[in-house]
Amino acid sequence: PTIHYILKDGSTRSIDAKPGGSVMENAVRNNVRGIDAECGGSCSCATCHVYVDDAFVALLPPADDMENDLLDGVASERQPGSRLSCQITMTAELDGITVRVPETQI
Ligand code: FES
């Protein structure tokens, strides 16, 4: 499945994701800038914040309490499409998902 990352400069990086990996892991593996992921994916740092495109928000399982609490403390403004990218597992269904990297993670 393909993931499109919209970077801070407005350009788009499209990568071929490993199914089963998270949107965060695929970003780190492909050197996509702007997803810091300081905790390495254990849902405790909130520096993997992304804005998920409207068309894909409804396809994702809702954020659990832990993710929801962390999203309240993200460095850039929380918006309706805000998610922690380490909590989004890539599946074939999510092919073409577009996520925007926020202005800042810290
Ligand atoms: Fe730390 Fe996602 S990588 S919360």
Nutshell version of this structure?
This protein has 106 residues and is an alpha+beta fold.
Your description of this structure?
The chain has 106 residues and is α+β, with helices and mostly antiparallel strands. The chain has a single domain (2-100), classed as Ubiquitin-like (UB roll). Helix content is 17%, strand content 20%. The chain has helices at residues 23-29, 54-57, 65-71; strands at residues 2-6, 12-16, 49-52, 82-84, 97-100. The protein has a 5-stranded mixed β-sheet with strand order 2-1-5-3-4. Strand 1 (2-6) and strand 2 (12-16) form a beta hairpin. The N and C termini lie far apart (29 Å). The protein binds FE2/S2 (inorganic) cluster. FE2/S2 (inorganic) cluster binds at residues 24, 37-39, 41, 43-48, 84, 86.
List keywords for this structure.
single chain, 106 residues, alpha+beta, Ubiquitin-like (UB roll), five-stranded mixed beta sheet, 3 helices, 5 strands, globular, binds FE2/S2 (inorganic) cluster
CATH class: Alpha Beta
Biggest sheet details: 5 strands, mixed
Low-confidence stretches: none
Percent of residues in beta strands: 15-25%
* Helix vs. strand class: alpha+beta
Instruction: Report strand order across the widest sheet.
Output: 2-1-5-3-4
Ions, cofactors, ligands: which are bound? FE2/S2 (inorganic) cluster
Task: Report the average pLDDT across residues.
Answer: 97
Output the number of helix runs. Answer: 3
CATH superfamily placement: Beta-grasp domain
Under CATH, the topology can be stated as: Ubiquitin-like (UB roll)
Radius of gyration: 12 Å
